[in-house]
Amino acid sequence: MNDREITEGSLKKVLVVEDNQDNREMVVKALKFNGYQVIEAVDGQEAIEKAKAENPDLILLDIYLPKMDGYEVTKRLKGDYEVRSIPIIALTAHAMKGNREEALAAGCDGYIPKPIDVRELPKQIEHFLKPNP
Ligand code: MN
């Protein structure tokens, strides 16, 4: 971890939405290691609640979630003027070819294919982070 990463990451808050505990912990750990603040949600409903309550700088959103899938979460957030500027990156399953297209069609700003490479993750999300006001 270099100084640049610490400085950039420390100001940024990421909402990690993932129902699989192992995947979630892996992503959270990698983000914290790189200086990000992290909020977690384990289903689609909680994702929406925390996005609105916490106003994160970025949302990492699993597609297959309990209660409401990632596509529906994206449509709702992108349809809400209070939170629609928050970038959403879908975590898409490698084997499911349609995931990317459907994620982008739902309004996601980008996608990261699973399995997630935790060493690449900080670089992958950097481009999508909301600029400082
Ligand atoms: Mn899932």
Describe this structure in words.
The structure is a single chain. The chain is α/β, with parallel strands linked by helices. It has a domain at about 35-105 and about 115-133: Response regulator (Rossmann fold, 3-Layer(aba) Sandwich). The protein has six helices and five strands. Strands 2-1-3-4-5 form a five-stranded parallel β-sheet, with helices on both faces. Strand 3 (about 60), helix 4 (about 70-80) and strand 4 (about 90-95) form a beta-alpha-beta unit. The longest helix has 13 residues, at about 20-35. It is globular. The model has no long low-confidence stretch (mean pLDDT about 90). Manganese (II) ion binds next to loops.
What's the short story on this structure?
The chain has 133 residues and is an alpha/beta fold.
Keywords:
133 residues; alpha/beta; Rossmann fold; 42% helix; 20% strand; globular; binds manganese (II) ion
- The oligomeric state of the chains shown is single chain
Briefly note the CATH topology name of the domain at 35-107 and 115-133.
Rossmann fold
> Strand fraction band?
15-25%
Major sheet size, sense and barrel closure: 5 strands, parallel
Ligand identities: manganese (II) ion
End-to-end C-alpha gap: 26 Å
Query: Element order, helices and strands?
Result: HEHEHEHEHEH
- Per CATH, the class of the domain at 35-107 and 115-133 reads Alpha Beta
